[in-house]
Amino acid sequence: MAGLAAVGLFSVGCSTGGSGAQDEGAAHTDSVAKATPSQATPSNSAGRKAEAVNAVKLIMSDPKVSERVKADLRPCARDAYPLDTSYGNLTGGTSPDVVINVLTCGDAVGMGTYVYRENGDSYENVFAVQEPAVYSAIDRGDLVVTQQVYAKGDPVAEPSGEEITTYHWSSGKFVQQYWVRNEFSRGVGEGEVVATEPPPPNEN
User: Fold this and answer.
1) Count of H helices and E strands in the chain?
2) In the 8-state DSSP scheme, what is residue 57?
3) Pairing of strands 122-129, 31-33
4) Measured distance CA(134)–CA(1) in Å, rounded
5) d(Cα 87, Cα 19) in Å, to the nearest integer?
6) Rounded to whole angstroms, how far apart are CA atoms 173 and 195?
7) What is the C-alpha to C-alpha distance for residues 193 and 133, in angstroms, rounded to an integer?
8) Short-list 48, 7, 13, 52, CA closest to 130
9) Residue 11 and residue 13: Cα distance in Å, rounded?
10) Which of 134, 111, 114, 138 is closest to 124 using CA atoms?
11) Cβ neighbour number for residue 72 with a 10 Å cutoff
């Protein structure tokens, strides 16, 4: 998560209505054309094989992905796109789910994070956060979303803190389970420790 950075103050919010920058809740009826599998076949913790998706094709063909994210998704070097892809059991389906994080090339800033659930011959976008400095990971069957928090004047590499939200799939939607906000100290590692001498003894 150390590479996540952006300018401004961002926070993760919940919206089961499927509106705004974050879009979770009941699985959307819109589906995305199933990406072309590559030769690799990653396996999840349950021992099931997962078809490796073409993450670029999946993101670019998804109508739920913002035009801003699509416009910024370009190769960093030749065909190397700034995408992190994870496979795991999040929604209890018969096939592993896919988590895709879209990053920037230079600073590896998370520009959007998405969860896809296989539905027959296609994938459904069942979760999305499309704000800077966001990153998702699978942790023991739950979705953990980390978002850097910036105050005015924060350097790009030094956010004021971070918010970590854990979601669990329940009744066809992601439900927030836990929320943690960490505020980082500005004093650690700054400057030198100044030694002070004790005052002279009182002669009286």
Assistant:
1) 2, 10
2) H
3) antiparallel
4) 9
5) 26
6) 57
7) 33
8) 13
9) 6
10) 114
11) 15
**Cα–Cα separations (whole angstroms), residue 32 to 29, 64, 65, 113, 128:** 10, 9, 11, 16, 14
Q: Which of 192, 107, 84, 82 lies closest to 158, judged by CA?
A: 107
C-alpha distance from residue 173 to each of 17, 31, 72, 166, 191 (Å): 11, 16, 29, 13, 48
Tokens of 44: 């999840």
Model confidence, pTM: 0.70
Backbone angles phi, psi at 182, to 5 degrees: -110, 125
Q: What is the pLDDT of residues 102-123, one digit of tens each?
A: 999 988 889 999 999 998 889 9
Cα-Cα-Cα-Cα dihedral sign, residues 149, 132, 128, 66: positive
Residue 111 is which amino acid? M
Distances in whole angstroms, Cα of residue 126 to Cα of each of 22, 74, 88, 90, 165: 11, 24, 14, 11, 16
Amino acid at 7: V
CB 131 within 8 A of CB 153: no
| Tokens found for residue 163 | 């918010």
Three-state DSSP state, 67: helix
Q: Which two tokens stand for residue 51?
A: 């078809």
Average pLDDT over residues 124-143: 96
